[in-house]
Design goal:
The protein is α+β, with helices and mostly antiparallel strands and 581 residues long. Helices cover 20% and strands 29% of the residues. It binds (2S,3S,4S,5R)-3,4,5-trihydroxy-6-oxo-oxane-2-carboxylic acid. (2S,3S,4S,5R)-3,4,5-trihydroxy-6-oxo-oxane-2-carboxylic acid (GCB) binds next to loops. The site of (2S,3S,4S,5R)-3,4,5-trihydroxy-6-oxo-oxane-2-carboxylic acid has 10 residues, from loops.
Length: 581
Amino acid sequence: MSTLYPQNNATRMTLDLGGVWDFRFQGDSAWQPVAVPASYNDQSPDPRFRNAAGVVEYRRRITVPAGWKGLRVFLRFDGVAHSARILLNGMEIASHRGGFLPFEVDLDAHLQPGETGELLVEADNRISHRTLPIGVEGGNAFFGSDNPGIPSVEAGKQKQREQGINLPAFDFFNYTGIQRPVRLCAVPKAHIRDITLVPALSGEVRYAVETSGGSPADVRIQVMDAESRIVAIASGAEGTLHIAQPHLWEPWPGTPYLYTARVFFGDDVYDQPFGIREVRVEGTRFLINGKPFRFHGPCKHEDSAFHGRGMDPCLNVTDIGLYHWLHANCFRTSHYPYAEEMYQLCDREGIVIVDETPAVGMWADEDYGWGLGEYHRQVLQDMIARDRNHPCVVMWSLGNEPDTDTYPDRAYDYWRPLYDLAHQADPQNRPVTLVGCQNRYDRDRIIRSMDVVLINRYYGWYNLSGDLETAKFAFRQELDWWETQGKPVILSEYGADTIAGLHGAVAEMFTEEFQVAFYEAMSECLDERDFVIGEMPWNFADFATCQGPMRAGGNRKGLFTRDRRPKMAAHWFRKRWAEMD
Ligand code: GCB
């Protein structure tokens, strides 16, 4: 398939199929309304919307415009979680595994211009040891110690398993459905399939264009600057463009200057935005355009009221506005690739992204013999293919918090080929990382072998709870160890659950004062170390999770509430990060 984001222009057309679709749980007879794109889970008070595991059906009619004769017509799904089967007039025409990356479905053989058909999308929300992210059956999935060994509790867990209860091995609500846009698209029969751009600071841009039909030699390419002036031209499917006195793409508060590569091929044309910037790791520094870059910005989730994980441009703009307000310059797409519109916005706004695969939950007392490897490779390649032209993406994350210390050698053998694959698959050869959880860092082998070490730590919260003086002592001890490794380190998660509006003259856990004190304590340790090149508090905003004894209405570690009101800690970071600009 083509990895190009759908575009409307003189030769390409898209019809947005967003709106209210018919919806039902498979096996039900009645249909009810559900909005697309959005997670379905919060759109009804029926508990099945939140809890049922299995297949749901979405239905609507589609018509291919009569004027689209002679074009290639296809459907483009930006993301259906976690897997999808696509049927047209009752016949399966495609299927796709994985909920966070796009896929296309060719309609040419099924529906002619002027014809109408019934489109049915089956979406399966089940998660298991065969999916990314990972799910488990029965028990208390994320919150570890749920009274193991007690006969009656074990019997209860067995009963849950028999009922096919399906729980996340990760700490965010298992939002699902058609969560991202669906479009009916038309492009010329002979068309541009793919564009790869590899810019250098000199203004040389290597390019490669993949085409379908026609003769690849007919490709022409024009680069336009931000004022639409043509600044470089070339022809042929591969080559080098030369931009004189290039403007660089710089992270915020610099200027994230964007060029557009306009590619012509036969009747087809496609505008691919790009930025000129270089990313490199040198010793313990992370260089963007040759200058040391310090990451500071909270990790995110795609999460909001009503929409769940649904793509919402208003929410994206609001969130990035708050990143500017915070003087934040980055986030990690914890714990899955986000909707493409967010990367487009970050290209434009200069917010740097660490792009993460949905490999989360790979710790549930298992080893690495799950047979996931091939699928994991596919997801990693697809993510890189989708996102490789975005200047905002500066690093790939292979996954979040796998168990890497129980069997350090097996973990190394599982993850190292993925690390190599990421380097091979990315024409820009960005640095690669794997995010480590708080474990036996002295036993683990793989995390320390990454280009940049990203570690999640909860000193003072999950361990040494509430005792920030001792938390600092312990964290410093660990940092002493990392200092010997000679790698750049980012604290990629640290945080404290905080109930907005809960205060205390003494800073105790869950109060806003404690959250500030926690970040003061951790920052004190970070600021002492040169090899620490970034801090990413957990999390930007409160977010929904599955139920559990440690989650009161979700995860409350946000600097903002779920409706994006700042807690005291947001104001604290705003001051701290303003000084880093
Ligand atoms: C983590 C996970 C993240 C959780 C967070 C927490 O280490 O990576 O998904 O939400 O801890 O708050 O427990």
